[in-house]
User: Fold these one by one.
Assistant:
Number 1:
Amino acid sequence: MTDVGTTNAVVEPTRTSAAGESVIKIGYHQNLTNEDLAPLKKQHWTSYNIFAFWMSDVHSVGGYVFAGSLFALGISAWQVLIALLVGIFMVYFLCNLVARPSQQAGVPYPVTTRIAFGVRGANLPAILRGLIAVAWYGIQTYLASVAFGLLALKFWPSLARFDSVDDYGFLGLSLLGWGGFVLMWVLQAIVFWNGMETIRKFIDFCGPAVYVVMVILAGYLIYKAGWSNVHFDLSSGPNKSGWASITALISAIALVVSYFSGPMLNFGDFSRYGRTFADVKKGNFLGLPVNFLFFSILVVCTVSAGATVIGRDSDGNIITDPVHIVDRIDNTTAAVLGVLTFAIATIGINIVANFVSPAFDFSNVAPTKITWRMGGMIAAIGSVLITPWNLFNNPSAIHYTLDTLGAVIGPLFGVLIADFYLVKKKQIVVDDLFSMSPTGRYWFRSGVNPVAVIATVVAAAAGIAIVIEGTTYMASYTWFVGAGLGFAIYSLGMRLLPPSFIHDNPPAPVASAAPAADVSA
């Protein structure tokens, strides 16, 4: 359970919001507090809820294509298996690290960043993560909306003329494409608007439900193709050997970690609801190593059998996009069921990974003016303005965008982990997270920790420089470069720089700063 502190101060009544029930103490500053950001009154998510969260996060259209691509790197099946296991166990370990402070204090990701960046400086990591989520939200919405367009054409072929960007296009998207995108956008907004409890119920049901349909789809394709045509080596050319296979293996591991870097960074937005940290860790284990491995095997079976049943694309490549796989199935019922399933699956991942995060992040910037719901809708509107279909249609832009995002996300992760585990020794003075007092533990210099900002900027700049000047292979490691540099620079800065540089008023040790009940450890 969360420790919201039990001082002698009068405690205000429980506040209920779309993000849950919270407790706001007398003395919490309004510029740092609202019903969505304050510590939860009760944490009730079990390990199954966390497991369902990861199920929704993994089996989307993007996840399908990503997992399939790992089996096509030119390395043998056993090497792919090793890459998957090592990569996902790294994600599991890192998620446990980032989950603890939010579960411990009962607050979302942007509030926990105040521990390292300061009560005002926390807006830097919050805005960066929020903007990244907006970009991903738009791209995922567009990917899933394609399914609705294909479904419409299957039943009403006469709509094909509205699928022309030249004749019926606006901002690079056809009229039919706009229809699917708007429909997908509205469906997600409806689920989100009903609050975290509705989201929890949605992912609790959709996680296993989508798996049922995916197993049926895989079984149907395997039955049609024959088991002899299902294999675990989808590489289009000869397998790599020697040093080339080793570098491809390491690259595959890095890709797994990078793919999950976004939801991993703001996982505290969900771990805050965890009943206990043990529940969170158990849910992470079931949802990451166990779930991802099963999902990957299911993907390769589907893609491999699909290559026999539906053939390859016009360039002779194996089709890994599940929407296009089910669209080519010569069975209307199976195709409709498959398309709708992947649309629902993408709604799940988009809400948990790219809707909830900016909702908290943007609310953190101006708590008195931006609620959790409003923050989410700002992200939803922003996802339209960036016209994600134009980004997706430019492979070069996608490459540089993803690598740049990794370069920015990595330093934030490194700073937060170094601060919580090495500097703060897992201790949180919860009340000070909502205090603008110059003597508060997280005030630093005018509300900003200069060391955290410097570490983030320097590490991110190094990662972006690699993206611009380095090779494509080097760019795939920007998350690791950023996280490592951010961790090292912050740790050394907090240890070697004088307190007068970091704080206006250097705080007293935690033990004497507040009663023991106020310290969450």
Number 2:
Amino acid sequence: MKLIGKSQPQTGAPQQDIDTEAGPVPAQRGSWRTGARRPYGPESLVHVPVPQVGGRYPAAAPIGQDHRAEGRVDHDHDHDPDSDSDTASFETELAARESAALETRHRAAADAGDANAASQLGALLLRRGDLDDAEPYLRKAAAAGLRAAANNLGVLLHQRGHRAEAGGWWRQAAVAGSAPAAHALGLHLRDHGDEEAAEYWLHFAAEQGHALGAYALGDLMEHRRDVRAERWFKAAADAGHREAAYRLARMREAAGDKESAETWYRTAAVRSHARAALRLGVLVEERATGDQSLREEAARWYRQSAQNGEPRAACALGFLLRDSGDLPSAAEWWQEAAEAGDGNAANALGALHASRGEDDAAERWYRAALEAGDHNGAFNLGLLCASAGRQAQAEQWYRRAAYAGHREACNALAVILLQRGDESGAEPWFSKAAEAGSVDGAFNLGILHANRGEQQQAQEWYARAAAEGHGEAALQLAVVKEQRGDLSAALERYRQAATGGSAEGAFRLASLLDRRGDVPEEAEHWYAIAADADHSRAQVRMGVRAAERGALEIAESWYRRAAETGSRSAAFNLGLLLARQGREAEAMLWYTRAADAGHGRAALRLALLALRRGEPVQAENWCKRATDYGPPEVAERAARLLDALHPELSA
């Protein structure tokens, strides 16, 4: 896999344009900009480093002359290295022969004093990398005033490190009207800190339709937050410059115009721009809710980006496949991305192994994520150690991630410190987590203040957490509102808690609606939400409501679910239901479970049943327990029954 961020050759735009017939001579530096400087653009523009293609300057390849002005131009020919057919071998050999013959003709003419031939020969040799042989021919042609030779001589000298002399020859060619030389000169001046002169020459190249010049001008202007940058990126993109299309897309996305951004990402992506394909996949996936065709399109762009060397795309493709249910394929792409240094993918692999109970493999990938610079790896190692009961190691990993700024690690570390009684050590970490945006940190900070009796500070932190959708924080706010008699505000907060996933919030919302009695359907809805989340009191309420409707099987199901998790009220109600159906033996079991858990009515019912069976001693024991358990009316009835039993017990 290719290195992250490694530039790819431009598709559709040559490294240097071929010089055509002489263009207009540019005016003196600065004369074209007579008005005031245009205002700079928005601060939010994203600066992306310019990919270096073929060395420091894009002008890495030599250029020939325009056949209309200075003789025949040599063109490079693509060759398929995988083709071993006789036809391909013949064509390659024929091309080599033609090139050799052409070189011979050019050399003979150049040695005879033909400046055009010297320029052509110099370009051919420079393209081949034979700098020593190319230089004298290019110098001879450049001295004769051929601008293409002057530009190519600048390229050669730059490759040899003679940058000052290269700049002089580029200036000569640019003044003669060469757009490629103006582009190279502009970059040369930019790198020497003369941005005003650089802008002038890049503008000259761009105005002549030179794609690389337009791109470099856009890059310079974006660096200075100049709103005109977008115009020149667009000009370069329209001319086939894929990096310009990508940069233009980034600008449009930053401005909130995702539709236009997607168009330009697509323009760059079809030219094999890896990062553009990645971003295009992200935007398409965002629109793919419920649309399988869009998900497939997003997967195609991720795959193309990954195959062009972008590990983040391989990671994103893994998540897309996981969400589609294809976990084995997801793991393959995550592994490819992780092995290329993507920490997010390594964390995903670690989580996958942890979910299978493969802690050693999970730890290995979490460590790989950490080595890749992703501090989620340290946090996940803390979670892994905590789940295995290795609290000391968990604390070390949480602390490492917390010092690196991981907000959830700050919260987890604070919880550990608080659990061992170090409140003063926990509070700063809760604060750091909350200030960094951790809703759990804000909620826990609220609990910390509430336990100290600092209700105002507690309510402030609860409010911050609730504003970010923390259901339990909204519940705490709702309880206070209800206690103060502000039922409308309490309803709003309970609703927020319920929608935020708080089962207790859903139960309390249903109870409050139930007491009002004006929206029974909504009350039952929230009881059902809480009951499905295993809230035992909500399950009892659902059972009661079902029994009232005569739906005894449904009632029994709800009672049984709650009773099996320890609800004594559910156990008692289940006993009543079973007794009415004549299932006395099973009813007795549930009465006993409820009474053993402290349910007074269940104890009184067992006392009556014992008396009915002629077991006064058992009846007395259950009466005493009912008296102790209450509530008052049950204790009173149990006392009367016990008084009635005394004569029989003393007889």
Number 3:
Amino acid sequence: MIHRSWMRSQGFGSDVFDGRPVIGIATSASELAPCNVHLTRVAEAVKRGVWQAGGFPLAFPTMATGETLMRPTAMLYRNLMAMEVEELIRANPLDGVVLLSGCDKTTPAMLMGAASVDLPAVMVTGGPMLNGKFRGADVGSGTHVWKFEEELKAGRMSQEECFFAEGCMARSNGHCMTMGTASTMACLAEALGMQLPGSATWPAVDARRFETAQAAGQRIVAMVEEQLRPSSILTREAFENAIRVNAAIGGSTNAIIHLLALAGRVGVPLQMSDFDALGRDVPTLVNLMPSGKFLMEDFCYAGGLPVVVRRLAEAGLLHPGTVTVTGKSLADNVSDAQCWNDEVITPVTEPFQPTGSGTAVLTGNLAPDGAVIKQSAASPDLLTHTGPALVFDTAEDYHRVADDPDLDVTADTVLVIRGAGPKGYPGMPEVANVPLPAKLLKNGVTDLVRICDGRMSGTGYGTVVLHVSPESAAGGPLALVRTGDRITLDTPGRSLTLHVSDEELVARRAAWSAPESPYVSGYTWLYTHHVTQANQGADFDFLHGSRGPGVPRDSH
């Protein structure tokens, strides 16, 4: 009686307490996260669907880890959001949950939290922005930020032009409309089977985005009745499908971190090397920025992810029988998918980029536990390169001298940025694709090999080696590199080599000491003490495995 009476203070009639499924709607709407701000309206559409299907919808807020404003990086708080989502679902009397996400880290955080509870759950991502338009051409939010910054540094664009352009890149609600991390994770949620087919790509302001949300509200009620849980969907085969789809769409390298973390939550064995092994025979089919020229609106109208999935399945590159939130198999969901623009979504036989052009995983004495490079966004002539290192302990150290005309740097230089890993920054920020030195840009140099233990925005591009593991702050070999050391990047050979003798490295290690952490309390202290390395998903070591819905001690 006491619980019902408090709920009735909101105006609910007694008939909603008749035993119907209680559906939580977890929304990360926040004005501090522009990509997620419209999710309040999306939640209303979900509610319509839940009511229609005979459920009782109750929306509740979660934090929003927006990459746009959070400092030092939203990645620092992905695990905190996952913990919050998990505990909110477990603590409240819910039978199922709809997850509303948008910006980069909100999608994996919500999936991680829901997987750890293992109640029936369906993801609804908020959708991409409309295509950016500047001077009669399409521009991509995120991707063109880096391009315009380079143009400004090179003196080919004025500050006033940049001010005008920034309003052209982000002209509607939604997340980045390039194949950045937000778009990638929306597509991978669909490929995993956790999102309704075709729903990853509808623009945020398209009416069909809200139709999709309403359909998700209807479907979650049936999932409760069927007891279709994430543990039945997130299988090893589903993760293999997601890895191959990521290769086919030219997806973000950040997907590796998030899929590794999610797999850890459901106890599925997954390693960084799987991304290389499974992606080598997959061509890039989707011609989208930053690797190509189109944007998410174009991808949507060309047929969206169902076309990619159907083409990969018909080529024998996917496990077609994996279960999805529809209750049907992945292949059944896309059996009638049609492509309306083969330039945007190319056929497998005539791909946008050939097999093996996706993300490569490197190992070697500079990255014993692995590093990654997005080949489709790199300069082909730099994928095999040897040059002298120019080392900076922090990205900020580099930025302070990047415009110095006397900086000792050439087109052969290998920029090394360290101190950007999970523990070192902390939070593993997207600082790896630092802009090129101004003196090189003015001389027409457009790319440089960069190596970092941090991440790169999915909207970024360039020959950038990321996620070097172990990181420098944890004593990885990156901590021992000195300016002038020669480094070889051999992407075809999948190796990253520091040309320094083992004896010299032993001597350098003896003289090295771990940086002292300034954090003695609070969440950041917890993070730095318990976060795993990039090759393990940068999740907390105490959150591996599903804990289930639990049984409250006071169940009356």
